[in-house]
Amino acid sequence: EVQLVESGGGLVQPGGSLRLSCVASGFTFSNYWMTWVRQAPGKGLEWVANINQDRSERYYVDYVKDRFTISRDNAKNSLFLQMDSLSAGDTGVYYCARSEYGDYIDLWGQGTLVTVSS
Amino acid sequence: QSALTQPASVSGSRGRSITISCTGTISDVRGYDYVSWYQQLPGKAPKLIIYDVNKRPSAVSIRFSGSKSGYTASLTISGLQAEDEADYYCSSYTSSSTLVFGTGTTVTVL
Questions:
Q1: How far apart are CA A5 and CA A78, in angstroms?
Q2: What's the rounded Cα separation, in Å, for the pair B58 and B55?
């Protein structure tokens, strides 16, 4: 089955860190751009970051630059998001997503919830 | 990297057609034919329904169609059905090599 499964979400205090993981199965992971998208409670979708197939290109939305780092391990079919200096505004469901050329997303995970609160 | 502008809500009667607009800038919608649309049912992950402005994945109903003119892209749902009640988001590739989503539109079937 073609799928993406996220993990690593949870409750973290402001200023803390969290590392999200996403494991892909059912397709050739190394052939695709991979993306993180988040959705705050009751709000819309926000594109966060993406990474190309060989990790030579990584892009971030302005308000997470210098705080978040996207990475991947093609040997383990895995995508990661290291999140540092977290604030309440980072609370939301984080989706792992697949994109063949980086221009649209054709596969989404079920999401993992991150809650930043004291 | 401001969100693309969509109407907050659109409604229509069962069997009729509705259109959702998505307005951007020269750096995204106007500049690239890489607009996509997603349907999100309550409590679920989004689902791709249109890509590259007007292309439809094979498993998506032909009742969904997309178009673009200048700074505005549009999603049309024909023959509206109860199962179409959902949130809809547009997205565009940008000049910064990123993606930007729209503000989202809630569709209600009357």
A1: 10
A2: 9
pLDDT in tens, B19-64: 999 999 999 999 999 999 999 999 999 999 999 999 999 999 999 9
Interface of A with B in 48-107 (CB under 8 A): 50, 57, 59-62, 95, 102-106
Instruction: Give yes or no for a contact between B23 and B4, defined as CB atoms under 8 angstroms apart.
Output: yes
Q: Which residues touch A92 (CB under 8 Å, ≥6 apart)? A: A38, A39, A40, A41, A43, A46, A113, A114
Q: Minimal Cα distance from A4: which residue of B?
A: B45
What string of DSSP letters covers chain A?
--EEEEE--EEE-TT--EEEEEEEESS-GGGSEEEEEEE-TTS-EEEEEEE-TTSS-EEE-GGGTTTEEEEEEGGGTEEEEEE-S--GGG-EEEEEEEESSSSS--EE---EEEEE--
Q: Does B3 touch chain A (CB under 8 A)?
A: yes
Q: Measuring CA to CA, which residue among A79, A96, A68 is closest to residue A30? A: A79
pLDDT tens digits, B56-104 = 999 999 999 999 999 999 999 999 999 999 999 999 999 999 999 999 9
Do the beta carbons of residue B17 and residue B69 sit within 8 Å? no
